[in-house]
Structures are given as structure tokens and as C-alpha cells.
Amino acid sequence: MGPFWKTKDTSRVNKVLNEKEVHVPPKVQETDPITLARRQKQINYGKNTVEYANYLNTVPKEARSPASPATPNMRKKASRRGWDGEVRMWRLLLHAYNPDGPNPKNNKLSKQCNN
């Protein structure tokens, strides 16, 4: 008998699923110290801004919504491009808390919308 997914007998498939024979890999975390140090440096750079300080003062932890800018999890396994994208989005969301208001000359998002 071949692999269960190639058979027309669905009872075998149901049996496998019911017996929890399906292997689900555990969540993988980043462990490379060089990568973690680089990510921590990027997070520190973002947290050392006026926008981040205003965000902390404006929005208490209890009042934050899922749409609020959340610090990226540096231990999450992600490619370098994926991680850089998460940091970039976090930083763009923090720009909404700029005390001088959004600056259209420096705002990458407004440049993308105008093109």
C-alpha cells in the first residue's frame, strides 16, 4: 500500500489525523548571537527617537490596540530582508507620533503615494 494521501480510502487519512501522527514543528527562535546583536542595535536605534518617547507617553500599555506600533520580536526566526521589513514598518508607524507632525519631505510613505 502506498502513502495514505495517494489512496482513495479516506478512513486511513482520518485515522492518521485522529491519532495525531501529524508532526508539527515547534516554533523556531533565532539563536545566532551576531544576528541578535544586530537586531538589538536596530531596536535600540528606534527606541532612542523622539517619536518613540512620545508614543510611550501618549499611549499607555493597557490602551494599545493590535494596530499600535509594536516592537518587533528580535528572537523571531526571519530572513534578513523579512526582519528589515518588520523594523521599517515599525519605524514608519512610529513617525505618526512625531511632535512636529508628519514631515512630507522626509516621509517615505508620502513619497510612495505621490509617485
From TrEMBL:
UniProt-annotated stretches for the region Disordered: 61-82
An MF annotation (GO) of this entry: mRNA binding
Coiled-coil annotated residue ranges, if any: none
Protein name: Histone RNA hairpin-binding protein
Similarity field: Belongs to the SLBP family.
Domain (Histone RNA hairpin-binding protein RNA-binding): residue spans on this chain: 32-99
Top-level taxon of the source organism: Eukaryota
GO terms for biological process, alphabetical: mitotic chromosome condensation; mRNA 3'-end processing by stem-loop binding and cleavage; mRNA transport
UniProt keyword terms in alphabetical order: RNA-binding
Species this protein is from: Folsomia candida (Springtail)
Pfam family, one: SLBP_RNA_bind
InterPro entries tied to this protein: SLBP1/SLBP2, SLBP_RNA_bind, SLBP_RNA_bind_sf
UniProt keyword Membrane present: no
Gene Ontology cellular component annotations, sorted alphabetically: cytoplasm; histone pre-mRNA 3'end processing complex
